[in-house]
Amino acid sequence: MKAKILVGLAACITSFSSMAARGYWEIVQVCDYEQVTVQEPKTACYYSGFLTGSGGVGIPFNINFTVNGHVSCSAHQYQTETRQEFNHSTGRWETVFYSGVVPLTGQSQFLADRVETQVVEGSCREERVWIRLCDNCQIP
User: In Å, what is the CA distance from 99 to each residue of 3, 8, 47, 104, 109?
Assistant: First the structure.
């Protein structure tokens, strides 16, 4: 009878130790999250002016563009552009490099939406979770 109890006890201990070898319990902090839309102020800076070709090549052309950002607008922006243009005197296409300082012509303020993830206030809690060491452990 004692032998049967010892064998049963040994089988139970072996079973428990093989289960414990596959993972363990851990206390972790868990929080709920939500996505919220946040509006932030931005500035639109409007620029308009002419770019001229380097070395007197090419015909100056008007350029308009907008720069959006968080800060105030600078009084001007340096711009460059490369174009392929046909040279009638040589009968070939040439690369012409244009550049210029383009002045600020206006600005406006607007609100831009941005989605961010935040912790739900008061939702954090400690939970006991099972940390699995392996899915298909071959422990007897």
Answer: 97, 89, 14, 16, 28
Q: Within 13 A of 105's CA, how many CA atoms are on the CB side?
A: 11
Stretch among 15-19, 48-52, 93-97, 123-127 having the lowest mean pLDDT: 15-19
Kindly list the domain boundaries of the chain, sorted by start residue. 35-119
Structure tokens given for 124: 């954090």
> What totals of helices (H) and strands (E) does the chain contain, helices first?
1, 6
* pTM passes above 0.70: no
Size of the chain in residues = 140
Query: C-alpha distances in angstroms, 26 versus 18, 38, 129, 133?
Result: 18, 36, 5, 12
